[in-house]
Amino acid sequence: MQNYKIDLLKLSVQDNDNNLKIIWDGECISKNPEENIGKILFDIINNNKNINKEVILDFKKLTFINSATISLIVIFLKELRFKNLKVKIDYNKNYSWQSASFRILENFTTSLDNIQK
What we know:
Layout: E1 2-6, E2 9-15, E3 19-28, H1 37-46, E4 54-65, H2 67-82, E5 87-90, H3 96-109, E6 115-116
Parallel strand pairs: 3-4, 4-5, 5-6
Antiparallel strand pairs: 1-2, 2-3
């Protein structure tokens, strides 16, 4: 497992036989997430050139996310679709703030056939 720390956010990457799971834990407060979080996310995918497995984005431990990071996630999802990778998005629907924040992603991902919610 690889761990990355950005401000109050920890990203943990679990590379298993069938999937690549990215666990988001803490708060996404970066004003320029493409410079730090984005670099990490795209490096994870680009450094796994032979990746042919499902990518799981696990937000269940996330306690806050700003709109700039939501935008970055949309860009990342488009890149995963371009690479023909299946994606699963996990979040806690019992947390009202997560439901509200990720409703944007749900609306966006309805047009992407590689996303499972």
